[in-house]
């Protein structure tokens, strides 16, 4: 949970300084459970956002506006009626719970100044934004909760507002060193992080682990015996930590995972992470803003990718079934040469055949020894009609085989294309790269066309970049991530004499070495071949064949799909790429 009670404490300290005394200029509701309040304070416009979305409930100042619906929701209209033009009197977090109370001085229908309160409850799937009148009654809420939904606590207009049930935990910001010692002395030998999480308000599991790391030097530290010096030392450090938090000594820090995606956020500098996976902020609100914007972008890209993978996989499964059916139909025609032989031998032996027999014994003139052959006959037909029957079966099978041979080749090409697109989707993560793949799939008819503007599409295509590696000698190696990038790299970016590489007989990336082919060293060629093999469907195999040739010998057939090329004058290198080899190469972009 990125926004636990301690992080919310840092946010409230920052937001309250920025908005108290300010005037509410505008209220919007861009989402069904998200409210934006524009407050004019201290000569600046501050946009306060709050959301009761179950997966990303939060409250902070934001720099990002969202488009609003044409017709404002009823809750938005209600807040506008009561809050627009009001003054912010106060903002406070209830102890260290994830509940924030914002008080406004507004004018009622009689023209009298009254207080209105917004209660923002950040509690996962129970999150809510509740609007109260001056007597503490509920005017309305983002989520109404009836008795059918909860027997413990209802949230409906006209009811008195009550706080959520208490968890009976201790507020760390009011806990002195003696109280903390008494709390920890009750659980000698237990895990410090787990004990803090279960006994102290406002600590997410990750925050409790960090406190254990910072104050005890070990995320798995156990609570020492109360009579030891180590116990006193840990108590003192934890007490000092909470004194700093109470005094506002915040150092908001974003933690990025191995793929540079937001993973955690803390109001202090965490321990146990590589420096390049940490991003410090001067403001808790800016840190949260970036965390959720980046995570939202990541989630949307993941959803887009997942939808395209599903669509491509569905078409690929259909093609494979079609290919299997076509192969079965070809197998059914395996006897066509026998039928032709039967027809020819019956025709050649008509002068000695009698009708009405279940089989005919004829001389096989194609046999070097001219032996006899027994041919099954239809007793209802004459020998001549039986011969014509076999000719018809042969001609029908021959036509079928000719058509199926063409169809099988087309299906094989389509399977290669779709497997290539799955490989491309595995390599692409940014919105620009995924947009290129989607546009291509739309053009090829695999996904229903979207209504995005062509200008936006062109902008996304231009922004998409291939992987850019560099050898120790400073030679650039470019690796396409999708078919459109492959086309641009090979047909537009690369010079005719530069080296082009591609895995042999399998979908994969086009690789360009930005150096004249006759100057490429064996070491550079080896690195480029490893990249071509790694960024292909053959990754994981051993002894992968990689073709390479000067780019001038690579061309695109007329009407070919994006990424499809033919080439000649190639040579072949065999490599077995390992993850460690690829990670050791200098990646400049990608």
Provide a quick synopsis of the model.
The protein is an alpha+beta fold. It has helices at residues 5-19, 74-83, 177-185, 192-199, 205-216, 229-247, 284-332, 336-348, 383-427, 431-443, 454-463, 483-493, 522-534, 579-584, and strands spanning 23-31, 34-41, 44-51, 58-61, 87-93, 99-107, 113-121, 128-132, 138-141, 253-256, 262-266, 278-280, 359-363, 372-376, 467-470, 476-479, 498-503, 511-516, 544-550, 554-555, 566-567, 571-575, 586-589. Helix 7 packs antiparallel against helix 9 and helix 10 (431-443) crosses helix 11.
Question: What is the element layout, followed by pairings?
Answer:
Elements: H1 5-19, E1 23-31, E2 34-41, E3 44-51, E4 58-61, H2 74-83, E5 87-93, E6 99-107, E7 113-121, E8 128-132, E9 138-141, H3 177-185, H4 192-199, H5 205-216, H6 229-247, E10 253-256, E11 262-266, E12 278-280, H7 284-332, H8 336-348, E13 359-363, E14 372-376, H9 383-427, H10 431-443, H11 454-463, E15 467-470, E16 476-479, H12 483-493, E17 498-503, E18 511-516, H13 522-534, E19 544-550, E20 554-555, E21 566-567, E22 571-575, H14 579-584, E23 586-589
Antiparallel strand pairs: 1-2, 2-3, 3-4, 5-6, 6-7, 7-8, 8-9, 10-11, 10-12, 13-14, 15-16, 15-23, 16-18, 17-18, 17-19, 19-22, 20-21
Helix pairs in contact: 3-6, 4-5, 5-6, 7-9, 8-9, 10-11
